[in-house]
User: Which sequence fits this backbone?
């Protein structure tokens, strides 16, 4: 079968012929319906240095945001109908530590002893015709479209987890949320904020089209550049935002988020753009403003994200690409030319 492989650090991926995998005990072979291309893949093949994360050493198939149809069950797996559509929870921890048993494989206590971090993250992922996944990582989609659903497993789950933890700050009247970066994650983030809170949503991106999309979803947009923080504060009546979500995470956006924060607010950094330290100072920081980072989410939260999708509360903006076009789509992602999410459909659109 064909698969898009991460072959070496600081190297653009390759479309290759590899052996079709066989599911082991507790695993399932999926025929891939959709594989979303996440900006973290760009970090993996272009930015990460060898030694930073040995669990993600090449070579492996990319794609940690997947959906598919059950093709074959491994030994010991039953109760899954052949042909049924599922979304895949990407992180794979040891399965038995405290974090894994509460469905939070992202914070597995034995992560450093694991051979990989997740599906498409050291272990073969879904930008391929088929992918093998642990049966416990499958979320049933029922009749819902698995191609449009694929981004939910990361571009949906990651903002959902970040927003859910910030809900105490947005619970009540007159609340404001800031969303920085309106790509795959950010545009779903705006929809989740709209569905879960009554907060006024302020959003920003470098791209006009991305801001126009956020406006359609009900956000007020403020372009970057000089005066941006003042404009955001003005919208909030001077106090600043109660929660900020930075889906870029470079020095400038972390600064913007912190400078826009209200007292007793929460600033969540989701984007991994900032590989250099942020300078924190007591007198310029609003009192009790929390600054946190979050990583992906839990398997239970992914069930909740799928419930929201089925209820029509979130619809990822998807452009599909065939497996032959997957490398072109990655190139467009590198160049910042993808609107919403690029999803590779190895077996076409059904
Ligand atoms: P994307 O490429 O789809 O979108 C990024 C958006 O940010 C684009 O619209 C771009 O125009 C905008 N942008 C870039 N620089 C900007 C700046 N300086 N100011 C304002 N806007 C800017 O990316 P994505 O797939 O949505 O991922 C977003 C980030 O989140 C990436 O850093 C990715 O690696 C990270 N990520 C983190 C997690 C996690 O668990 N923490 C999970 C998934 C992705
Ligand atoms: Zn990702
Ligand atoms: Zn574990």
Assistant:
């Amino acid at each position: 079968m064909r698969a898009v492989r991460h072959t070496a650090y600081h190297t653009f991926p390759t479309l290759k012929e590899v052996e079709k995998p066989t599911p082991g005990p507790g695993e399932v072979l999926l025929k891939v319906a959709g594989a979303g291309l996440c900006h973290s893949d760009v970090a993996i093949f272009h930015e990460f240095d060898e030694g930073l994360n040995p669990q993600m050493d090449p070579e492996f198939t990319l794609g940690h945001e997947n959906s598919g149809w059950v093709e074959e069950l491994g030994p010991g797996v039953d109760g899954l109908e052949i042909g049924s559509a599922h979304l895949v929870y990407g992180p794979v921890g040891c399965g038995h530590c405290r974090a894994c048993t509460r469905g939070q494989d992202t914070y597995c206590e034995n992560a450093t002893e694991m051979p990989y971090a997740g599906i498409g993250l050291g272990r073969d992922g879904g930008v391929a015709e088929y992918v093998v996944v642990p049966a416990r990582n499958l979320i049933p989609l029922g009749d819902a479209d698995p191609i449009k659903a694929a981004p939910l497993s990361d571009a949906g789950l990651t903002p959902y987890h970040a927003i859910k933890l910030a809900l105490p700050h947005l619970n009540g009247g007159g609340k404001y949320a800031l969303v920085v970066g309106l790509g795959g994650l950010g545009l779903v983030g705006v929809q989740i904020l709209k569905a879960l809170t009554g907060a006024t949503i302020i959003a920003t991106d470098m791209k006009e089209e991305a801001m126009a999309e956020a406006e359609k979803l009900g956000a007020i947009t403020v372009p970057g550049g000089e005066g941006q923080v003042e404009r955001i504060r003005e919208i909030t009546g001077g106090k600043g935002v109660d929660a900020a979500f930075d889906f870029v995470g470079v020095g400038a956006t972390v600064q913007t988020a912190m400078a826009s924060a209200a007292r007793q607010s929460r600033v969540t950094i989701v984007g991994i753009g900032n590989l250099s330290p942020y300078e924190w100072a007591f007198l310029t920081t609003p009192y009790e403003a929390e600054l946190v980072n979050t990583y992906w989410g839990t398997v239970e939260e992914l069930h909740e994200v799928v419930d929201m999708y089925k209820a029509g509360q979130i619809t990822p903006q998807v452009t599909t690409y065939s497996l032959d076009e997957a490398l072109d789509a990655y190139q467009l992602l590198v160049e910042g030319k993808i609107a919403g999410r690029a999803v590779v459909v190895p077996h076409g659109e059904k």
